[in-house]
Design a protein that fits this description.
Layout lengths: L11 H31 L5 H28 L8 H7 L12 H28 L3 H22 L6
Bound molecules: fe (ii) ion.
Length: 161
Amino acid sequence: MQSFSTRIDIPAEKRASVIALLNQQLADSFDLFSQIKQAHWNVKGPHFIALHELFDKLAEEVEDSIDEIAERATALGGLAQGTARQAASASRLPEYPATLATGRDHVGALSDRFAALVKTTRAAIDASAALGDAGTSDLFTGIVRELDKALWFLEAHLQSA
Ligand SMILES: [Fe+2]
């Protein structure tokens, strides 16, 4: 993959591994972003306005993290692979179901996908630390805290006391 010279003191081969890790999380996050918007647009039912607004807020948070992940890849001398087509071909998330309508269906589908991203992001914290990049590890740590919170907001709709 294309890379650029930089004075950053992380060895080139380790930087390349971190950049690949960042691009993988970028693809998954971009895919999730578009899926949340899909839910935002198509949700129906008595809780429409609450879920419509919640999904938009969650999409905005994921969009913010996408920007940070992509810019970390370029800061490390890498090429951010952030087009919709790149994300679609590299994402590990399943495609969003086409036939969902109820709020519960959408909350369930999004919860599954947030849970998948939470898991890989938490793994990326350790993987980037092991590569000697505390900066990227810290970035993923902040992101996983947001994702954990988003998953709570979603799952609270499915849980009852
Ligand atoms: Fe909207």
